[in-house]
Amino acid sequence: MTERKPPDVSFESWVDKQIRDAERAGDFSHLPGAGKPLPVTDDTTYDENWWIKRKMAREGFSVLPPSLALRKEAEDALAEAARAPSERIVRKIVTEINVKIRDMMFKPPPGPPLGLKPYDVEEIVRDWHTRHPQGT
Per mean pLDDT, which of 44-58, 65-79, 100-114 is the most reliable? Predict the structure, then answer.
């Protein structure tokens, strides 16, 4: 724990002394990135959330606007329906994504427009049957 600054010492010299003491104790010798240059970005504009974006990228997180996230979810649902083992599961997958699409169509979220309409379940089931002639 850091000691309190004595009243007769200036703030700058007190901080400098603490830094020198920590350096002598080796507190800074094993920090990540020590001795390496700071990362250079091509963008010269200042972004106040740069550290949040860098942390999210490092941790593998991404945040999409709701409409873009639903587009991705719809794309994944169609791929999942194409691989489904039965017609019943195809119908379930497409019906569930259609509920989400309709919900977003009638309550538009912030961000870019969705650009999707509910899928025709019967059409997707017909496509599934052509790829899986033995399936039921």
Answer: 65-79
Query: What residue type is 60 in one-letter code?
Result: G
Q: Residue 114 carries which side chain, given as an amino acid letter?
A: L
User: Tokens 């977003």 sit at which residue?
Assistant: 104
Residues contacting residue 81 through CB under 8 Å, at least 6 positions apart: 89, 90, 93, 94, 124, 128
DSSP conformation letters of 16-55: HHHHHHHHHHTTTTT-TTTTSPPPP-S--S--TTHHHHHH
With 60 as the cut, is the pLDDT of residue 1 above it?
Answer: no
**Separation CA 118–CA 105 (nearest Å):** 9
Backbone angles phi, psi at 70, to 5 degrees: -70, -35
The DSSP-derived string for 64-110 is --HHHHHHHHHHHHHHHHHH-SSHHHHHHHHHHHHHHHHHHHHSPPS
> Token digits for 38?
């700071």
